[in-house]
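Example record

One chain of 310 residues, shown exactly as stored in the release files.
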Amino acid sequence: MATPGWNTARIPDQGGRTAVVTGANSGIGLVTARELARKGARVVLACRSEARGTAAVEAVRREMPGADVEFRPLDLADLSSVREFAASFPYERLDLLVNNAGVMALPYGRTADGFETQFGVNHLGHFALTGLLLPRLLAAPAARVVTVSSGLHALSNLDMGDLNSERKYRRWIAYGRSKTANLLFVHELARRLGAAGTGIVAAAAHPGYAATNLQSAAVRMEGRTGAERIVELGNRVFAQPAEGGALPTLYAATAQGVAPDSFTGPSFLMWRGAPGSSWRARWTLDDVAGERLWVASEQLTGVTYDSLGR
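Predicted structure tokens for this chain:
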């Protein structure tokens, strides 16, 4: 169901709430952090680059002097960085965690811990971060965890026997698998949070086609200037701005009545428009697959959600 007219003006007051937004130095992450701060939240911009993260904080403060925003370093491609972020988190409670950061269609690579980069950053890094911050989330009334997936999860189900794409790597299939993993993570997390009676809502969102740096990162990394120009042209002609792409995330993070394991996206062809309930592939609602991915993720990261049980 679409929510006609829903925009940032309808975000409820966030005063007294603490939020973490990963990858908040640009694109929909920056818009998400900015709009949460505009509504009074204390927002931690969790970013890999100190220079870009600090610049994002300064940009928000220029627009909104007095905004309660800060940068803290987080590299989701390095589990030691994830652990350090969680261990040094200075606030006793966390009301909102937005797992926004991600990479898309990169050449084959590995994280610091040896995981295929897209699976490692998009899923495993956020799985570990959420688990390590769970005590802070449990300390907050009505906390939420929002994980940003993509309509391109439809490109592929997971291959549970080859989570790190070691047998064969196709960059877009690997991206689709990582976004499927995001949705399966939310599915199983929501089930466990509900079974434990925590009151925490785990939900997912996707931006549709939004003009951000995500699309051009891979071709820029490879020095493909012609392809980079084509991507930039597509962003200008077809994509909605980052402000529009952030609306589903902001809705899932703040609107009343957001259901556990819901998937919010743009209502027009999953591309643009007001946020609403989005289609998702049936394999992202598979209980058995969700549990298998959960167990594998605990084994790979060494992070367990002991307080939730099974």
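Notes: Confidence is low (pLDDT under 50) at residues 215-238.
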